[in-house]
Design a protein that fits this description.
The structure is a homodimer of 362-residue chains.
Chain A: E1 2-6, E2 13-18, H1 25-31, E3 36-42, H2 46-56, E4 61-67, H3 76-88, E5 96-101, H4 103-115, E6 121-126, H5 129-135, E7 140-145, E8 148-155, E9 160-164, H6 173-190, H7 192-200, H8 202-206, H9 210-230, H10 245-254, H11 262-279, H12 285-297, H13 309-315, E10 329-334, E11 337-341, H14 346-357
Parallel strand pairs in A: 2-9, 3-4, 3-5, 5-6, 6-9
Antiparallel strand pairs in A: 1-2, 7-8, 10-11
Helix pairs in contact in A: 1-2, 3-4, 5-6, 5-9, 6-7, 6-9, 6-11, 10-11, 10-13, 11-12, 11-14, 13-14
Chain lengths: 362, 362
C-alpha cells in the first residue's frame, strides 16, 4: 500500500493506494472510526464491491443506498434520497458517509455529507480510474443543474480516500481509457518525466498491470495534492487541473451528455489546448503530434466532432463580440508546464476552433 | 448607524444597525460591490421593502425572487427554485445574493449562496427582530427535512448584515415579542446587566423606540459575535446560544409547527432550563420567578403546553433508559452565565419535565 498525503491543515487526509485494499478489513476500519455509517453506491457497483465494504465495516451500524447509475441522475433530487435515508437512520453529526463508486457517486455522497447537519465526515472509495486519479481527491462535491454541470455543490474534503486498483478489473475498457486522459493531463500540466513514463507504460496500464496502475494513480494524486493544497478553493492555480476541460465541456454539451465520456472530451480538449499553445509559439508542431500520438496509443479520441466553431465558442461561455480574454483557459507554456491564461489573441483561439470543430476538406 | 464586527479571520464581516438604513442607498451599495445581484425575499416582505432595496442597488444587474412565506416552505424544493433563477440569470461566482426578510428567507438564501457554484457571497438584510438579533448572524444556513428542522445546510458566513430597525414597524406584535425571547436569552447566558436593561426597557422596546431597539440589537449581536468568533462551527461553546431550544423544540414538534412561534417555544424552554438549573442548586427560587416575570412582561408565554413528560423526553431525542447525560443542555450556572452540560441527574430533568409538561391539579 502506498500513501499520498493531502496537506490542508486541519482538513488534511491520506489517499491509500493499492491492489486488494477492500479485502483488507483493517484498511476500512482504520479510516472510519465512526460507529454509524452510510454507504452510498450505485446499482452497478453494489453487486461487485458492497459486500467487501460491509465486511470491512463489521461491528458498526451500517446502512447503504444504491443510486441509479449515470451522470443524468447526478441531481438535487437524487441527493434528496440520500438525505431521506440519513434521516431515517437517525444519523447524527458523528456519522460517516462512504462513497463507493465512480465520480458521480463520489460527488453526490460528498455533497450529502457536506450538507447533512451542516457537515459530517465522508470517505471516498473510488472504483473507476477517473475517480481514483481525479474526482475523489480535492473536496469538490456537487450535482448538476439542467442549466449546467456541477452548478450546485460544496467544497468538503473527505476524511480519507481508499483507492483499490483491483476494482479497475471490472471497469469497462472505454472507461479505463477515459481515466487515462486525466492521468495524461497531469503529465502535461506538471511533469514531463511522468508524461514519458505514461508513453512507455501505455500497454501495461491498459493491461491493468498492478504496479503500473499504482504508480499512475499515486503520481496523479501527488500532483493533484500539491495543487489543491496550494489553492483549495480554486482562486487561482487549481484551475490548471482543468486542462482541456473548457473545450471538452463544449463537446460534451453539443453532443448531448452521455455520447462522449468526460475523459474522452477532455482528451480532445487537451489537443485543442495544445494546438492553441502552439499558435502562441509556446509549443512546437512535434509537441502537438506527440500528445495526439499518446492519446491514440491509449485508445482515446484525438479529433473533435464537427460541432462548428461558433457553436463551440458559445458553449464555452463566450460572447463573440468580446471574445478575447473573457474566459481563462489552461494552456501549455511547454510540455509539463501548464499556464492559466485569459490573455491570448482572439484570432489564435478562433483559428484553433476552426481547425478542429469545422468539417475539413478531404 | 452602529457597527458590530464579527471576527472570523478572512470570513469577518460587519453588522450595520440603525433606523432607516434601507433608505440610505449608499449603505447597500457599499456592502455589495458585486455587479450581479439576486434579491431573495418573500411575498409578505417584497411589497414593503423590495423597492427600497432595488433603489439601493441601482446601476447593478439585479433580479429578485419572492418565495412563499412560512417555515413550512423552508425546503430543498424551495431552494431549488432559487437555483433555477440563479442559473437563468447566468450568475457567476462573482455574484451576490441578498436575503431580504426573516429567518426563513435568510436561511434559504444563505444556503443557496453556499451551494451555487460551490459558494458565492451573500448579504443579510433581516426584517424581523428574531433575524436581526439571531438568525442573520453567524453563518448557519439551511432548510428543514420532513424528519427535522435545519437538518440540511451549510456554514456560510455572510459578507455583511444590514439591520434596519425601522423595518420592525411592520412586524406583527406577536413576532416582535418572539424576537425579544432571543434578546432575553443573551442576557441570561452572558450578561446580567443587559438582562436588567431589558427589564427596565420592556415598554420602550414593545413601543418600537428606535434607540431601545438599536441597543437591544447591538448588544445581542455583540454577544453572539463573541461566541461565534470563538466557536464558528459549534464544536463547543456556541451551543450556549441554544438556551431553551431543546425544550422549545419538543414544544414546537408536539404542537405542530406553526402553532407556537419559535421564540415563544424558546421562551418556555428558557423557563424549563431555569427550573432545572434551580434543581441543581445553581439558581434560587427568586431567579426563576424573575425570568418568568420578564417573559410575561413582554407578553411571552411562560407556561408549557401539557404534552406529557414522556413525550417531551422522546421529542428531545432521549431514550428513557439511558436518560442522563445523553443530551447536552444549556443550563444557567447563575443568571448571566450559561453552561453547556450533559452531566445532570436524570431525576432532576424528569422532575422539571413533570412539573411543566404534565397537567397540574388546580
Amino acid at each position: 500500500m502506498q500513501t499520498v498525503h493531502i496537506d490542508l491543515g486541519s482538513r488534511s487526509y491520506p489517499i491509500l493506494i493499492g491492489s486488494g485494499l477492500l479485502d483488507q478489513p483493517s484498511v476500512l476500519a482504520q479510516a472510519i472510526p465512526a460507529r454509524d455509517v452510510l454507504v452510498v453506491t450505485n446499482g452497478t457497483v453494489a453487486p461487485l464491491y458492497l459486500a467487501a465494504v460491509l465486511r470491512g465495516l463489521a461491528g458498526k451500524r451500517v446502512a447503504s443506498i444504491a443510486l441509479p447509475d449515470g451522470e443524468r441522475y447526478k441531481t438535487l433530487e437524487t441527493v434528496g434520497r440520500v438525505f431521506d435515508v440519513m434521516v431515517e437512520q437517525r444519523l447524527n453529526r458523528d456519522a460517516c458517509v462512504v462513497a463507493l463508486g465512480g465520480g458521480v457517486v463520489g460527488d453526490m455522497a460528498g455533497f450529502a455529507a457536506a450538507c447533512y447537519q451542516r457537515g459530517v465526515d465522508y470517505v471516498q472509495v473510488p472504483t473507476t480510474l477517473l475517480a481514483q486519479v481525479d474526482s475523489s481527491v480535492g473536496g469538490k462535491t456537487g450535482v448538476n443543474h439542467p442549466g449546467g454541470k456541477n452548478l450546485i455543490g460544496a467544497f468538503h474534503q473527505p476524511r480519507a480516500v481508499i483507492s483499490d486498483t483491483a476494482t479497475l478489473a471490472t471497469l469497462p475498457m472505454r472507461e479505463l481509457r477515459a481515466g487515462l486522459a486525466e492521468v495524461i493531463k497531469y503529465g502535461l500540466i506538471d511533469d514531463l518525466e511522468f508524461l514519458g513514463w505514461i508513453e512507455r507504460n501505455a500497454q501495461p496500464l491498459l493491461a491493468l498491470d498492478p504496479e503500473a496502475l499504482a504508480h499512475a494513480v499515486r503520481r496523479s494524486c501527488e500532483i493533484k495534492a500539491r495543487i489543491v493544497a496550494a489553492d483549495e478553493r480554486e482562486h487561482g492555480q487549481r484551475a490548471l487541473l482543468n486542462l482541456g476541460h473548457t473545450f471538452g465541456h463544449a463537446i460534451e454539451t453539443a453532443t448531448g451528455y452521455g455520447q462522449w465520456l468526460h475523459g474522452e472530451a477532455v482528451a480532445v480538449g487537451m489537443v485543442l489546448a495544445t494546438d492553441l499553445s502552439r499558435r502562441l509559439g509556446w509549443l512546437a508542431e512535434g509537441d502537438v503530434a506527440r500528445v495526439q500520438a499518446l492519446l491514440e496509443r491509449v485508445g482515446l479520441p484525438s479529433r473533435a466532432p464537427t460541432i462548428g466553431a461558433d457553436r463551440a465558442l458559445e458553449l464555452m461561455g463566450m460572447d463573440k463580440k468580446v471574445l478575447a480574454g473573457r474566459i481563462r483557459l489552461v494552456l501549455l507554456r511547454k510540455l509539463g508546464q501548464g499556464k492559466v491564461s485569459g490573455d491570448y489573441p482572439a484570432e489564435a483561439l478562433e483559428a484553433t476552433l476552426r481547425a478542429h470543430f469545422e468539417a475539413r476538406a478531404a
